[in-house]
From TrEMBL, chains A, B, C, D, E, F:
Protein name: 3'-5' exoribonuclease YhaM
Gene Ontology biological process terms from the UniProt entry: rRNA 3'-end processing
Record domain HD: where: 162-283
Pfam assignment, any one: HD
PANTHER family (alphabetical): 3'-5' EXORIBONUCLEASE YHAM
Molecular functions (GO terms): hydrolase activity
UniProtKB keywords: Hydrolase
EC number, as in UniProt: 3.1.-.-
Protein origin, superkingdom: Bacteria
InterPro entries in UniProt: HD/PDEase_dom, HD_domain, YhaM_exoribonuc/phosphodiest
Length: 318, 318, 318, 318, 318, 318
């Protein structure tokens, strides 16, 4: 049983894996032959894999998000490791393999994350804010149990969004104690709501985003979430012109800080400035942590990280 | 009776004018004396004016948006003409002077503009779109009768916003005939709604914007208008997920084209691309027309126009 | 007989097509074998095609811009459809196939477009402007009958340049009526001349640009057209310093609006501002229309369009 | 006794103040007269002040950083409040006024801040790092007791630099607990060293920066601090090529994140990413807090803050 | 007799100066009084000057570009030295004062510069290039004797343009010897022609640019010079398509390197790359030299230089 | 014996070459076969080469930086020429082949370059500067004999760095004579030191950079060189605050001119401005010269050059 992040070029191996992507392609040979171009993974990582010379029954049997047992070897193609599959079969019920073991997950169980978020909402003093936050969270409650926070950038794993919120709440709590002039209700609400519409912006399964939705592309999670606050206020009978509604919408709309990063207005409330940087520090450090854990322990440098100006990260070891 | 745009340095003059701005300031002399620092104007333009050595009763008598009769002379201060007021008094009722004659207005009467907008709405075929547009226009109906389209950039005059909409509707109508693949309902609705929240973004009187509102700074007219579509859909019982609602929100959100110009999403529907460029061509040509008519006929170059990359415009005369 | 834009992966088909590009390449096999790497097309689109195991006589027989009959099947390679050619032969004279049926063309016949342009020139009142426009158009008259307006960006089809000019003239005519302060002669002349040197900037055949010319790369169509105005004025005996010559050169030089888009000066005449935005609205909407018609009717999203900030376009269907 | 931040236009007042800046200028009158153009302040803020009709003895008696008693009135000049001084005298010894009461200071006493920094250094485990940090802090120990962190941007007050370091250490401590993969020694050292050369970059007295030094302009605090690490390593006998020296220099050099913000390299270690965002969150929130406390309680909006994209901050009050 | 660059605040002085600019303005006093707002200068520099309480005969007697004798004193206004004129009179013929002594000039006499340029043209081997260069230089021969190279940026003095050309020719000569693959004819021609249309772009007298011309604003010196090459080729009977014409136009059009700096095409010939950097090194070092010589010897830092990223220059003195 | 830059598609050839890169890869065939993916080169250029069907002994025998005799043919793969190796063997001692003949080298022997640099140092008058320069050069003396100046951008050949320095010294010498106000010692020292830390930033062999070092990525050659000046000053007993040390550090730190190009401070000394442009003119012209000589004589255009805004260079031939 070999974990993905332990596979090295030239290795022969056998193991259980999740098919994360599967496409039928054809070789250039005459006549052309069909083969599977796949991404297989487990909780430790993922790798491209080729299954050559497939049969018609193979084509019917295998598809994405399926668990399989694979015998293969690791080759190098265009400087990247790639698996050549020699044998593949579906798993038996009595092999007792759970899908959950094969996907990358937040280090804290999903229901605990939800509890923390729920408790934070309970502790919001301002009732108008509390009602609106509750309404918005309700809209995506089910998805919050498993959605990632992004497609590839950061927290791209099972319950990544809820995990991102909870870690930000911890930092927010600390910063509010350090600087008591901040309105703690707004900071909490801003953290919970800032990415709350991501489950509508993206389609995801098992923590893996497959694509952006139409609404995601045409409106974006920032404007969707802002509209949810409008919807919540109407439902709760709160005036759309009251400071709480305007404040929450401002927090959501400005949290990307600059127009070129997607925010139609820039932070102009203390809590909006705080929200942006709390979001940044958590997202960026998660990217660093993920890229370090995804690269082999003995490598000094990770691969390049798009969200960190395309830089590689150096592993300090003293 | 001398019009503002006819005043030249060294002129002595008498006339009726509108006090557009008035501030009490103090000279550096010992002891300091109070004076009025004013902007006076008529339908042809405006100019800075100083009224030295004012009395206490002057301070009580005069304020902004008042009509007055002035005797003065034109001086030059820091390369700009400036009026030195020698005498000033308020107008008598029997002088038969109407405020409307002293402000810059759209060349078409306000109620005619509103009729055109109303008729365009009547001709929208898609009922969901029609209802939403109607709802949003109703919210600002009164203000649409007189609001300018911007603080200084373009259409900064009485009913400028309605005039901007009507001219854009004319262009939109032409483009939809030229390219029938465009959805004419969406183009019409997009034009009417794109700046519909400007009367909430800015505080204005008589076509003059005094300042941005809190909502204007914190949320901005783009996100406000998008939320109004949400509100309208809820009120009309239209699903927030239907294509019409998403389409209208996309048109509003993307009409500034780029993130750095305030749009959180970029145009991704044919009608959104059309809307942006129809907005641009009308706004930019209005800036040109306004700057040419605001500068003396005998001057080859206008003053610099901020909305046109800070360039001056050359007056062609052949 | 199957049209290119109807071909789907796995299809087997027979039909007549135009060879748009053809290159002889070699496989990695031992010993390597020659094959044709081709782009084949018809009036509806184009697709990559491979012809494996070619003979020496094949190499002599086939070349670009030739019409052929092909039997093949559609495969998928690197996520894109690709044709595998099984049989190919040249056409017989009695098959009555005309090259014109196989290239994408403007929806209006080339000679009608030229007539419209000619009539517009006839209607220019200012004689100096008329002479210069006439002189410049004469220089590329033959090419104007068939040249595209760009390599890939927009109007990249047979007579695309003339079509672009004619559609812009329609919009220009409308805008001049809407805003009578514009000089209609300058607007017309600017539209006809703004891209007039493109046939010298690019080498094209049948509406397909193969490459930029040396002059195109080293001088660019903007400076070439400006020099043509100089040449025209000298030939017509018009002073190089008169307002008409300066005005026309300004229109040409500034029509890309910004330095980073290739304009050495920015629009500083009302007609130059109008020209730029008329150009933009026509070019951008043509890109939208082309990308929608090039993608299958049942797909909600087109492929990405470079000229539209790299965005895909969403197909509205209500 | 009136505090600066309580002064409103038209107020007459008497009080003790610090002369922060003083320049002798001349009026435009004939003959010209000398006057003092001053900035006076106390612990709550500062304001421009004019003292007209000064004598020769006045010129000899008054200079910057002197405490004086002033009788004056508040006027408005170019939209800003300005003090007109009616009487001014130096203070008597028996008036028991201390300079310290007149300057803005960190809310924690300077020596406590230094103790916290010293304790943090004591707790660094890696001896090479500890020695280098100690050496660099020693170089500016005296100045660290009173230097501000910047000229105007943030923490521009007495002991502002030490205060900035201490608050960052608190956040760093929290983040290191939240993400144990971070090397706490590097985070602590990075926080202490990142701005350690600012006292050499700028000349300051009583928390007020008067100007940048030659070294500050020509080399900058980032490269100076990096050279100090070199110097420290040589003095301590630590190899310049060891990971600790390279790591510390990387932290210092990259802490502004981007080239255009002054960093010659970008963060490429987890601790460097953490350092940059800890610096940002503390600096930006301090700017917000300072601008809110510098503007009157009843004003909804602060003046614009250069370090926050030139935005004003809105005061929430629920 | 005191030179401008020796005047210090508080100085009383008498001397001869050139009136470079003169405007009649009015004080804010009641009644307002006329005064002269002037720029006076000599060969060492220039300074703002005020002449208060002028008479009607003063207004008739004095104008720009006149030589006068002044008695005055140096004051400080808004941190800048300013002259208060106590007495002023025009000069007598027998005072033997020559205008040339009062303007900043190239350090080499104008006619020697022209000779060098003429000799360089004589040494161009390629006859087509030689003829074109000759034709273009002829067009501005008179103005080349005295025109500056720019309004303020660099070489803003009498014969500055010719001096800039000659210094560049020296560098070009050196570089061509160092890298013999460069075509020396093209380098010479490019240097002489690159700014040759500046005398048409700007209106200047005695080395001082008063304003840009209409042609300068609407077409710009880059496109004007490129059109002159067209004109020259037509006159000389040289084909517009030959490599020499295209090459010279490319050199002129690309010499600002980037679109945002005004070049519609970027350097794509070896000689065009050389030309751009030879231009840069000469222009930038002249800015440095001018700003150092314009600031007092005892000051370590010059004032900010717009063409050097707005930086001040440090005077090294070892 | 065929030189690389003479090889054309379809050529069969035999010759001696240097293996510059060698990687073992595997084909997609079933079962996969190992092959060599190589870059082979000589003094005239380099090309990709494939050696199919290799044996185990081949894998042991061949590695990078080895000289071999090859029989092969030139094919085209993805529009680029590629060598198919038919036979390969290592060279015999008696074949008298020297590695030096197979690498691209500076046109002047390495030891002559070093002599020139040494003589220049000898002629520096200021003793403090001379000592520091000497110390820094000593640190990399061995590497300076063969290091390239960059990985790919410019002077990427054997002794390229020393060659770049020497050519810059020639230009610097000329410019100092043309503008005597420049401090020649600083110019010389700046040229020698500006890239002196590149041998530590990059790992190179035989003029070929394989990768950046950890120090290179984390600190960068600019900050490393600046620290060397610190080290040199400490060793030589020169004060770190003296003008010479600050001046040299400023020259090094600012020589990339802008923050986004890696300079933490911008040039603020005359010699720093000179250094930047001397560096630019030499680097850019070398890129041009290299790209022209690397492309076949009969091709009008070179391939694109990354350091020249991604442009191709046109070969003039008159």
């Amino acid at each position: 049983m070999t974990l993905i992040n332990k596979l090295e070029p030239q290795d022969d191996f056998i193991g259980f894996y999740l098919i994360k992507e599967l496409e039928i392609k054809q070789t250039n040979s005459t006549p052309p032959k069909d083969y599977f171009d796949m991404t297989i993974g487990d909780s430790t990582g993922e790798m491209n894999a080729k299954f050559w010379d497939i049969s018609e029954s193979d084509k019917n049997m295998y598809k994405a998000m399926q668990l399989v047992k694979i015998q293969g070897s690791v080759q190098v193609y265009r400087d990247k490791p790639q698996i050549k599959i020699l044998k593949m079969r579906t798993i038996n019920e009595n092999e007792n393999i759970s899908l959950n073991d094969f996907i990358k997950s937040a280090p804290i169980p999903s229901n605990e994350l939800m509890q923390t978020i729920q408790q934070t909402i309970d502790n919001i003093c301002d009732l108008k804010i509390k009602e609106i936050v509750l309404y918005c969270v309700k809209k995506v409650e089910d998805k919050l149990l498993h959605y990632p926070a992004a497609k590839t950038n950061h927290h791209a794993f099972f319950a990544g969004l809820a995990y991102h919120i909870v870690r930000m709440l911890e930092i927010g709590d600390f910063i509010c104690k350090q600087r008591p002039f901040l309105n703690a209700d707004l900071v909490k609400a801003g953290i919970i709501l800032h990415d709350i519409a991501k489950p509508v912006e993206m389609n995801a399964q098992m923590g893996i985003v497959s694509e952006y939705s139409n609404q995601g592309k045409l409106i974006g999670h920032i404007a969707i979430a802002s509209s949810w606050v409008t919807e919540a206020a109407i439902t709760c009978g709160t005036s759309l012109d009251c400071d709480q509604v305007i404040g929450l919408q401002h927090l959501i709309l400005s949290h990307h800080n600059l127009g070129e990063w997607g925010s139609p207005v820039q932070p102009q409330m203390a809590e909006a400035v705080a929200l942006h940087y709390i979001d940044m520090i958590d997202a960026k450090l998660q990217m660093v942590e993920d890229s370090l854990s995804a690269s082999p322990q003995h490598e000094e440098w990770t691969s390049t990280v798009r969200g960190l100006e395309g830089k590689q990260i150096f592993r300090t070891n003293f």
